[in-house]
Amino acid sequence: MSEAASPPLRKDARQLGARLWEYQAERFPVFKHGALIAAFGASAVCLSAILRGGAAGWPAPNPLSIFVAIAVLFGFFFQLRVADEHKDNEEDTKFRPERPVPRGLVTLAELRAVAIGVAVSQVALTVWLDWRLLGPLLLVWVWMAVMTKEFFVPVWLKKHPLVYMISHMAIMPLIDLYATACDWLPHGDGGHQGFGLTLGAFLLLSLVNGSVIEIARKCWAPDQEREGVETYSKLWGPGRSGIAVLCVVLAGFALAAFITARSGTGIWMLGGLALVSAWCAWCAIDYAGTPTTKTSKALETGSGVFVLTNYLLLGVLPMLPVMLHAFVNQLFSGL
Known about the structure:
Helices cover 77% and strands 0% of the residues. By secondary structure, it is mostly helical.
């Protein structure tokens, strides 16, 4: 949506930096989102290294690969937020005037400028690691662009909310493809016989994990519903939306268990996945039976913990001893 569609705003007179800091606290909390994005990016790189090693042993991933993956992914998710601000500007102005853009804290033009600056840094980081990663980078941006245009069929998509969600969540495997490529593209896929299949399952898991968070954060209590705000609890009813989260969590656990078995990360990791999946599943059941503000918040928290723990257990924690060993060896070799 264009800024011309909005009524004249009283622009905040403070410096842009101060206004952006307030904006992030409301719409893109750096530390809250940063933890999940860091786990996502690091897990993707570490799992790729695990699969590359196969039976021959796990090679420690390049620290630069982890850094670039996390930094570029953080930029992707910020750009997605900016894209949403443009896409939802008309509805926000009408139904949610307290949000930062409608109330004049920041303008769409300012957010676009920051997003472009982030894009420049993403290109620089990508080329620094391996110029061939520009392909996956551009693929994410192309999908993001057509998403912002609602795939040029906005009315049809609004009438098919499940297709709408899946079409938008489909960007997650593309982002995941970039993150894993930060490891396997510079090094090759090594000797793991099932590298492609297991990596494909991990990309699919990122779609499932994104859907868990997306549905759970829009499962509200009846007294929380607002005019003009689309939620799954309003669309499907609290009971069915809670059951939907439950089903997606179970699908996520099945994929994670498959990846764990294929990568050989061990029974402890599988046990941890089972425990956190069971807790999130219980939160979904509790909300479905008793849709209150408390159970709604617990479901949103549970979904975030499920996804965060999922990524940590699949790649980061199994690889941690290998990375620490490599770090210690490098430290003492330099003495």
